[in-house]
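ok so dumb question maybe but i'm new to this and my supervisor (M.) told me to 'just get the structure for Putative surface protein with fasciclin (FAS1) repeats' and walked off. so i did the thing. is this what she meant?? sequence i used:
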Amino acid sequence: MIFKNTSILFGAALTALVLVSSCEDNKKKEEQMRIETERVERESAEKARMEMEAEEARLKEEARANSIAGQAMKNEDLTTLVSALQSADLAAMLSEPGEYTVFAPSNQAFEKLTQKQRDELMKPENKQMLTDVLTYHVVKGAITSDKFAEAIKGAKGSYKFETVKGDELIASMSGDQFVIKDATGKKAQVILGNVEASNGRIYIIDTVLMFKK
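this is what came out, is it supposed to look like this??
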């Protein structure tokens, strides 16, 4: 009888031990599965973040390449302007997101200036003067040719608008071409207009515009 009871107790203990062991194994497996799931989720999230950052960087670089400054750098007729923008630390402004309209003097436009004028503008000590001249060619907002023509027509053929410099320019039409007059009365003709950029519009002109000092 004692032996039978002992056997029963032993069997029960063994069964309990097996159950406990099985529960512990299940808990270990569940913990391992949880850890593995979290690892996969972390890796997926990290991969998604890296892909998103890479796409954002690609789009940003694409926008920069197609920006006003980027377009100017690709145009062989604007190399003097690009050098001037870099000297005045304005290339970055015209590379970043925003909306600008730039009246971009061609290389030939700069050549109309005397050598002395060009040399003076490019001197390091005259950086502010160069900045003033260049920002006199920049307007806030992207002005398409249609809007430009409408504004001129609405102003009875003589449309005044303010530049980033703070001084005004006057736009008019000569036939189907835009003409820009500066504060000194000098006129520049748009030789290539409405060039689209990621941050605005470019109008290439044949004369460097000057404000009154």
